[in-house]
């Protein structure tokens, strides 16, 4: 075969080879670019791919709905999906089951209330071991591998209440105390802080502590029983939102004219009672702020920033002279 014929045969072959080589190089470059994009944006950074489960203490509790509202608004900004779940009524065993289910569902992150339970801590540690960050909210679980805590300094709030009562009482008198439930960790912490202050004053005495089980009706009944048994009580403290109103109802039934009531949180009725000088004061938490800060902290963590261990949200006092400036929400 002549050289001319070989030339005519090789030219198309070389052109085809060059075209194939160009296509291969272009595809390799595109694949490399795509791989780099995947490295830069991990699955947990891609907005709607991030599933966050918020487990409440009580599903339709106003306070927890406020936490949900704050968390949901913040999650929307980051394109996160927020699933809000919880028991119908306070039930630590149900909270444990829901945490287990959230882990099994392969949530990207979980927000929970601490309940001071060894099985709960085991599950939090399990989640951490699987790479699922857990943030405690409202009440901490400090002996677990939770990533961080966001919420009220509950023991500090109890101490604040003790200082306020000691000042109002002139450091003298008998005190009745109402908590929502002895199994609820934030109530235990508030009570511990309160006791630590009251114990400094030899003429201040806590004569009885009762539980309302987050029920205004039960708070009123328990407060009435307390006042019947100890008519000398001059100061009553409620450490959850419905307690103060229940105590007020009981005092009106009993005609307890000289009773001073110290409440918690800013239900509209509580603020009105303060304005009418039927309740002395209330300490107000920031549940919506808790939800929002927890989500922001989580977003920062997923982007590589390690959060501080404790983030305490604000509390403030409302007295008769300041109640006009506060717009109340229904709280726990």
Automatic annotation (TrEMBL):
SUPFAM superfamilies, alphabetized: Periplasmic binding protein-like I
A Pfam cross-reference name: Peripla_BP_4
Subcellular location: Cell envelope
Location, primary (coarse class): other
Similarity comment text for this entry: Belongs to the bacterial solute-binding protein 2 family.
Protein name, as recorded: Sugar ABC transporter substrate-binding protein
Occurrences of domain Periplasmic binding protein (ranges): 53-304
